[in-house]
Amino acid sequence: MSNSGPTPTPPPLGALRAVPFMGVIYVVHEASQLGFRNGHPDWCNLGQGQPEVGPMTGAPVRIGAVEIKPEDHAYGPLGGTDEFRGAVAAHYNRLYRAGHTPYTAANICAAQGGRLTLTRVMAALGRVNVGYLLPDYTAYEDMFETHLARLNPVAIRGRVEDGFTFTAARLLAEIDAQKLSALVLSNPCNPTGNVIQGAELRQLVDGARARGTTLIMDEFYSHFIYTADGKPGAGPVSAAPFIGDVEKDPVIIVDGLTKNYRYPGWRVGWAVGPSALMETIARTASAIDGGPSRIAQRAALAALMPAQADQETTALRTVFVAKRNLMLSRLKGMGVTFARESESTFYVWGSLEKLPAPLNDAMTFFRRALESKVMTVPGQFFDVNPGKRRAGPPAYTQWMRFSFGPPMDNLKLGLDRLEKMIAGAK
Fold it and tell me: Quick check: 56 pLDDT over 60?
């Protein structure tokens, strides 16, 4: 079974290749066949890859307007406007670079969303071995696959007995053993909710610097940080504090407004790194996308104002850790088990192994849950396998990613329905 699940025979595509739905996109497609639409009051999307976007306890009022200036009607710079790039640089300096050399606008490359930013980064990589972790973000698969003539993706698989965590020592050993010129990882990790931080993250950055290995750090969940005992984390996690020379250290940080500031529809993302790398990444836009919207960048300036940003992200951790705690407790009561409990993101990565058959199979669980108007994401989607070069069936067929992205009331409704579904199978 492929990562995209069973699908009917596709219609003739002529010269076009068959592009599979990936991860949550497949889930939404299948649910839509049963009547789902965004905002439908009787559906519970416990598979969603976006946080709740409405008013939230403790958060600032949602930004609802932007002034469009005459110059906004024209094409903008490929890497973003000077004003926006300067605002992102100031944002990183304030959060992470006190007492260190600062980022400047030249160290920022803006793009229309996170996936597009990552797509540009992949397009800018040379003919290299590039490592990636398993399980990890589903969209990496097609990003790699587009460039298989040039890139050699090398998988590094997490171990259940380690809770799918990775130490810096293991990653650096894999870099050496596999002769990796680059390493891509979501940190915090989608889907496991694991996060490399503190001394481990410093060791990873130091090791990459010593080896000249480019780290591509997908930090889109950097503010969704919780303690192991279920409290809001003290603040965000990023590789940025551990970078020595912003012009030399081979670290590219990718982030945006999608998750941490709850504006996914704005499609505002950015890369942070040495200016020469940012210039190269920006040049890929001339063939890929033509540069980000001036209007979206202008709106984003308000979201990055210090008081606005800090109020938003502080509220985020408080609200989301409560949903995290509820989801873990309820799923455990249903028989779902966890190799390690999520300490970041808005996902939990649970094993269905102890559920009654046939619900101990992720695809069957997914289909049965859809019948109850609940969406989940089967674990096999996160077994990233570009070009299907790795033989054999996909892994994680008894694992499921559950999202606590929806508002609390909808989350509770979805969990109630899953509990009823599982109880009915016993």
Answer: yes
The closest alpha carbon to 399, from 332, 348, 324, belongs to: 348
pLDDT of residue 2: 43
Whole-angstrom Cα distance, residue 186 to residue 196?
10
CA angle (286, 291, 297) in 5-degree steps: 165
What does DSSP assign to residue 247?
Answer: T
CA distance 97 to 386: 36
Whether the Cβ atoms of residue 127 and residue 133 lie closer than 8 Å to each other: no
Q: Token pair 């995209």 is at which residue? A: 4
- pLDDT score, position 23: 80
Cα separation, 17 vs 23, whole angstroms: 19
Alpha helix positions (H), 22-62: 24-32
| The listed CATH number (3.40.640.10, 3.50.7.10, 3.30.450.20, 1.10.10.10) that belongs to domain 70-307 | 3.40.640.10
CB 226 within 8 A of CB 317: yes
Judge if 24-58+310-425 and 70-307 fold alike in CATH terms: no
Give CATH superfamily name and number for 24-58+310-425.
Aspartate Aminotransferase, domain 1 (3.90.1150.10)
User: How big is the CA angle at 13 (ends 8 and 15), to the nearest 5 degrees?
Assistant: 145
- With 0-12 CB in 10 A as exposed, 13-18 as middle and 19+ as buried, what is 288? middle
The closest alpha carbon to 218, from 172, 272, 174, belongs to: 272
Spans of all domains in the chain: 24-58+310-425, 70-307
Angle between the 408-425 and 306-334 helix axes, to the nearest 10 degrees? 20
Residue 22 is classified by DSSP as -
**pTM of this prediction?**
0.94
